[in-house]
Design a protein that fits this description.
The protein has about 260 residues and is an alpha/beta fold. The protein contains eleven helices and nine strands. The structure holds 3-methylmercaptopropionate-CoA (MMPA-CoA). 3-methylmercaptopropionate-CoA (MMPA-CoA) binds next to β5 and α4. This is Crotonase/enoyl-CoA hydratase family protein.
Length: about 260
Amino acid sequence: MNYQDIHFELRGDHSEVAVVRLARTAKRNALSDGLILALRDLFEQMPASVRAAVIDGEGPHFCAGLDLSELQERDAGQGLHHSRMWHAALDRVQYGPVPVIAALHGAVVGGGLELASACHIRVADASTFYALPEGSRGIFVGGGGAVRIPKLIGVARMTDMMLTGRVYDAQEGERVGLAQYLVPEGQAFDKALELALRVAQNAPLTNYALMHALPRIAEQPADQGLFTEAMMAAIAQSAPEAKQRLADFLEGRAAKVRKN
Ligand code: 1HE
């Protein structure tokens, strides 16, 4: 499969993990319109074997955000449509066919952080740093960051990042919730791939519930959320794969939960 400025490959014994690598190294993987549309198309056309995906970036940085050279004079309507194009693409990442793990290193800034926050798990190496330079460029987030980033770190921290240009380093980023895993420099991709291979073994309906039901349930009033949870639980339990996995445990064939 050929997508503009993306290297794509399949990993795993059954081609169950898609590796999606941003490959505009000379521009620090800045997200041009072409690259955003390629991401949208790729997640819409994911091969049927794929059960989990990893997104990472080639070169010294994960992603420098919006390609500022394309930020030409737009009127309000064009600006609205441009932002909506990003929303459509990053919605395909968050609500696409499979869980997505971001492997972060170097700059994760602006639209790069918006892309990372559309993923389901973030693994950062020690070189990672996070910023929202939109504040100092006289613009605003437009790729879903205002919705997704406060869910990770809260409105107050995002406001601070944009008002003051605050940069979080890798340790601080993990502490405040920008990444769930922090690994030594150079190891983010390997850890993300290891996690993706693990995620790919889950029952597809469980992964679907986590991607599509959980974020919606978390937004619902408690009474409705509990009802939706019960519906999703009942559907997941009734799948043949769930019955097989439960039988495997009860008959001693499945792994126990062990502390690390
Ligand atoms: C770019 C971009 C870009 C680099 N658009 N061309 N994002 C930003 O405001 C971040 C801007 N970039 C940076 O702060 C730095 O480039 C980095 C910290 C990411 C990397 O620094 P460094 O020293 O490794 O690279 P560099 O020398 O700054 O950049 C290499 C080239 O990439 C250079 O071009 P060249 O032709 O001079 O070689 C840079 O101009 C180019 N480049 N970043 C275009 N972002 C949906 S709304 C989202 C809104 C936003 O994302 S706003 C935040 C944009």
